[in-house]
Fold this sequence. Notes:
By secondary structure, this protein is α/β, with parallel strands linked by helices. The chain folds into 2 domains: 8-193 and 361-393, Medium-chain alcohol dehydrogenases, catalytic domain (Quinone Oxidoreductase, Chain A, domain 1), CATH 3.90.180; 199-337, 3-Layer(aba) Sandwich (Rossmann fold). 25% of the residues lie in helices and 22% in strands. Strands 3, 4, 5, 8, 9, 16 and 17 form a 7-stranded mixed β-sheet that branches. A 6-stranded parallel β-sheet has the order 12-11-10-13-14-15, sandwiched between helices. 47% of the residues are buried.
Amino acid sequence: MAIIQMNTTSNSKNMTTTAGKVITCKAAVAWGPGQPLAIEEIQVDIPQKMEVRIKILFTSICHTDLGAWQGKNEAQRVYPRIFGHEASGVVESVGEGVEDMKAGDHVVPIFNGECGDCVFCKSKTSNLCKKFRVDPFKSVMANDGRTRFWTKQGEPIYHFLNTSTFSEYTVIDSACVVKVDHDAPLKTMTLLSCGVSTGLGAAWNTADVQPGSSVAVFGLGAVGLAVVEGARSRGASRIIGVDINSEKLSRGEAMGVTDVINPLELNKPVHEEIRGISEGGVDFSFECAGNLDVLREAFLSSHEGWGLTVLLGIHQTPKTLPLHPMELFDGRRIIGSVFGDFKGKSQLPEFAKQCMHGTVKLNDFITHELPFSEINQAFQLLMDGKSLRCILHL
């Protein structure tokens, strides 16, 4: 894989000439559900009050981008639009009132923001934010309800997940931008925007996996394998990986999975198999597939009396939980986790430092690297189940 070195001195000089001006740059624009993304020249407005304009250097594709691009939820079909929410880059300029960042700072965007002032942000038990929490239906800026992207003909282009990183430059609310150490490798920091933070945080923060715990992970994509990494680093004694893709099962074993299960090779329900090999069920199960049938298997795989199921998969359908209320009287619990229960701006910088020191093996999640112009190929790799994270170089 080709490694691109970033010249921060050159970038800083270029940014001093663009501050306060509309920038013309390239972006991958979605014109309709399932249509190939078009690399277009667009206009990026100056950042307004409490906004940050970022030069994106690396971005990657998550299944949330894939599902939105495919138009699986009709309410999200707002076009033209710039998708993308996993990225890293350099601050080009800041709007009025932004005091915690300046031009030249290294940053990662986050889809689940933190204003620091609302009742949610002040709570020690939630990582949501009243104004900047994740919202897949939001398509404009919070400041004035307008977009910061335009076609060269003056047509508005809409935002996605508070971030819109499939663009050489993007404007983001400062509550959704995290400053990281200047020495942090931005290519791997990209993974902290979503997948790795979500999965690993679910193991560390939501479940609080302890040494000797037993864990089952349903779905071994990037998020599922991040759960595996989190459980491994916490000293889990048994990590069961469940997937129908044999390549993902092999990858899981390489990253710390102790037992693999392919449901297609069983002649009984998965939960019965897991209960049989884990003395009645696992302490923690994680549903990372976004499938209700899988969710039920994950729930029933946890141990009676104390088992906890953490829901991470994105469920597009309006169907409700496949559980009978009385099943909750067996002592099993179920909970959802957003962004791994990390408070983005206040906790992610420390997590980034831990990653720099090798606590988490981020490079294992990068399976492909491509130039930004080949973004449609990167989407195809994800659809085919061949990639965990494909890093796009801008």
